[in-house]
């Protein structure tokens, strides 16, 4: 990654991180309920019976109500587990799912490891992001796990990044390894995006 792009990403991530940290608990709670409705609508649109998602941290848009509801309805939900080699393992979410602190201090599920290719069988991928731009480019938090996963998939299903409403921006800095997404899901809406080239 060039120094200029790295500096741009670092500055944008710092701004986004600060905005997420100052959000009130009431705003977080309201956005969680709205996000769950949007994610349910996305499932319905694709007729998905198997999805990948992620365990949100306290500052991310809250995916946990959605995951719990999907599991209770009998959907197969795969959750990622970070590996030392930069790849993601996957495990099936359960109603009584236990969590541990992962490699970077982030919450990760406990469960049988299915390996990196397990995600190739889902109907829809729901992934985290720091921001997404109107061309379909996603900017993550800098560890590259989801870029590597998406870049390795021959026939990826639709991929939607979960962000807050103000994190859909005009442009994000991008480098050669960065991967585009099909769309973004915010508490207010589902946005279909052109796949960036």
From TrEMBL:
Protein name: 5-formyltetrahydrofolate cyclo-ligase
Cofactor(s) required for function per UniProt: Mg(2+)
Keyword Transferase: no
Enzyme class: ligase
Gene3D superfamilies, per database record: NagB/RpiA/CoA transferase-like (3.40.50.10420)
Annotated NCBIfam families: MTHFS_bact
Domain of life: Bacteria
Keywords on record: ATP-binding, Magnesium, Metal-binding, Nucleotide-binding
Catalyzed chemical reaction(s): (6S)-5-formyl-5,6,7,8-tetrahydrofolate + ATP = (6R)-5,10-methenyltetrahydrofolate + ADP + phosphate
């Amino acid at each position: 990654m060039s120094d200029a792009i790295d500096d741009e990403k670092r500055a944008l991530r710092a701004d986004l991180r600060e905005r997420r940290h100052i959000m009130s608990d009431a705003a977080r709670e309201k956005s969680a309920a709205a996000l769950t409705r949007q994610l349910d609508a996305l499932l319905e649109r694709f007729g998905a019976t198997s999805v990948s998602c992620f365990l949100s941290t306290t500052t991310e848009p809250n995916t946990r109500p959605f995951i719990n509801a999907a599991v209770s309805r009998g959907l197969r939900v795969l959750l990622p587990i970070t590996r030392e080699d930069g790849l993601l393992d996957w495990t099936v979410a359960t109603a009584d799912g236990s969590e541990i602190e992962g490699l970077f201090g982030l919450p990760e599920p406990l469960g049988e490891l299915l390996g990196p290719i397990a995600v190739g069988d889902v109907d829809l991928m729901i992934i985290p992001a720091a921001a997404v731009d109107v061309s379909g480019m996603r900017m993550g938090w800098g560890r590259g796990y989801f870029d590597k996963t998406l870049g390795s998939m021959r026939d990826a299903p639709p991929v939607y990044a979960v962000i807050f409403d103000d994190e859909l921006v005009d442009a994000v800095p991008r480098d050669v390894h960065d991967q585009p997404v099909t769309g973004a899901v915010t508490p207010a809406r589902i946005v279909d995006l052109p796949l960036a080239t």
